[in-house]
Amino acid sequence: MNEIERLLTFTKEAVSPFHTVEAAGKLLEEKGFSPLSWKEEWSLNPGGKYYLVHHGSALFAFTIGKDAKKEQEIRMAAAHGDFPGFRIKPDPDMKAEAYIRLNTEPYGGVNLASWLDRPLSAAGRVAVRGKDAFHPEMRLVDFEKPVLTIPNIAIHLDREMNKGRELNRQTQMLPLAAMGTGVEEKGFFKKYLAKKLDVAEEDILEYEMNIYNADPGELIGFEEEFVSGPRLDDLTGVLAILEGLWDGERTGGINLGIVFDHEEIGSSTKQGAGSTLLLLLLERIVTALGWDRMDLLRMLEDTMLLSVDVAHGVHPNYQEKADPTNHPVLNGGFCIKEASSQSYATDSEAIAVVQALCEEEKIPYQKFVNRSDGTGGGTLGAIASALVPVRTIDIGVPLLAMHSSRELMGKKDMKALTSFIRTFFSAE
């Protein structure tokens, strides 16, 4: 199975942040990684491969070189497992005429129009009554098939729609779920959820459920040179990190791959890059190896973090939106992202390292910067490196239609990104 086949499979499985972590954990265990628990004592050994899940939607996987010493640096690569879309509110059932809709709220920067007229499904995490109040049973659920849609209005009823219109998030973006005729609309969603989980309705205490595009990803183009699919932001980064980590051949130091949650809403959560979690994890790793906190602080001087998230490729229909001299194209290689504002946490020293590795291995790369009269967002790199002050560089595959329910990338760029991260985790 090549990079693209794995990506298409992964995007089909990773339909919520919780499912992203679950799918990643399964892949890691297939590659010989042992699971760890935050509550237990850790016994780590040189040559070992381990992973840890934090609060269900963040994951840390690391390898310890067989010749690892405390004088050697840690190499880290981080991506995020969440994506823009919609979250289902509590008591979501709403009846309009004979229809039942679900009450939702946007999550992240959503391209609203791209979600219209799509086959949609729902997935996430459900808290079911457990052995006591402090220990609910946490269950993952995926409806697996299209059960929802957000129908557009006919152009006959809105003749000005092609001149541009603003969609109301509360009234015009609610997904249609069922016909109300003969259906008890009160508690409709909870009944469906209970049936899917095979539990009593009264045992469902709460849920974190998101709507996702149920269309599968696929190759398109006359020569199949493009990948069109949902959730490429940032499942491309997640999968490239996993593959680079388990293929990494470095015998010294520690390699660490990270999947954070909540990047699309600012990262300031217990599972996000804006928490102290990364630094606490690093301290646990080094102390489990018999080193101490001062050893860790010394190791950070040469440590490096790859912030792996997608970039904007130049759009052939909107070329004026690209920087006049730096305009990465699909299939031209992964992007190094720079910004004087440090919204991308990249500096010349980190760029030099990446470029040297790419030139040694003949891996194609490009540069991305925003136009000076516009902005293109930020990533978790600037946030994480403010809490763990190490050399950081933002990289990722270029996309068209970023934050749409379906995005477009170049097939060759996934190979370039994966090859680079593999090299990063292998070079001595």
UniProtKB/TrEMBL annotation:
Protease listed as a keyword: yes
Key words, A-Z: Aminopeptidase, Hydrolase, Metal-binding, Metalloprotease, Protease, Zinc
Keyword Metal-binding appears in the UniProt entry: yes
The cofactor named in the record is:
Zn(2+)
**Gene3D superfamilies, from UniProt?**
Aminopeptidase i, Domain 2 (2.30.250.10), Zn peptidases (3.40.630.10)
Query: What are the annotated GO cellular component locations?
Result: cytoplasm
Any Pfam family the entry gives: Peptidase_M18
GO MF term list: aminopeptidase activity; metallopeptidase activity; zinc ion binding
Supply the SUPFAM superfamilies for this chain. Aminopeptidase/glucanase lid domain (SSF101821), Zn-dependent exopeptidases (SSF53187)
What family name appears in the similarity comment? Answer: Belongs to the peptidase M18 family.
BP terms from Gene Ontology: proteolysis
Q: What is this protein called?
A: M18 family aminopeptidase
Q: Lineage of the native species?
A: Bacteria, Bacillati, Bacillota, Clostridia, Lachnospirales
Entry EC no(s): 3.4.11.-
